[in-house]
Write a structure and sequence with these properties.
- By secondary structure, the chain is mostly helical.
- The chain has one domain: Alpha-Beta Plaits (2-Layer Sandwich).
- It is built from 3 helices and 2 strands.
- It binds iron/sulfur cluster (2 copies).
- One iron/sulfur cluster binds next to helix 2.
- The site of one iron/sulfur cluster has 14 residues, from helix 1.
């Protein structure tokens, strides 16, 4: 599922547009405006835009089948 942008938090920096490896946001966007998600089906849930958004305005809905492959790393015993 595509990312969701909180338009109240977004400052329109377009770091997410620049960093998305598959151009979910499209290529040309009006700066200082929240980006428009132009190709939502292309999102592969890499989380790059979520991690790099400076104001944490992006959330990602990871589909259940994809979420099942994520596991927490085991804690190291000291
Ligand atoms: S990186 Fe965050 S603040 Fe910048 S345009 Fe994208 S959603 Fe908005
Ligand atoms: S999660 Fe990855 S693929 Fe999806 S929109 Fe963000 S940067 Fe692009």
């Amino acid at each position: 599922m595509p990312p969701i942008i909180d338009k109240k938090k977004c400052i329109g920096c377009h770091t997410c547009v620049d960093i998305c490896p598959v151009d979910v946001y499209g290529l040309k966007q009006a700066k200082k405006q929240p980006p428009v998600i132009q190709y939502p089906d292309e999102c592969w849930h890499c989380n790059a835009c979520v991690f790099d958004c400076p104001v944490k305005a992006i959330s990602l809905r990871i589909p259940a089948p994809a979420a099942m492959v994520f596991v927490n790393a085991p804690k190291k015993e000291s």
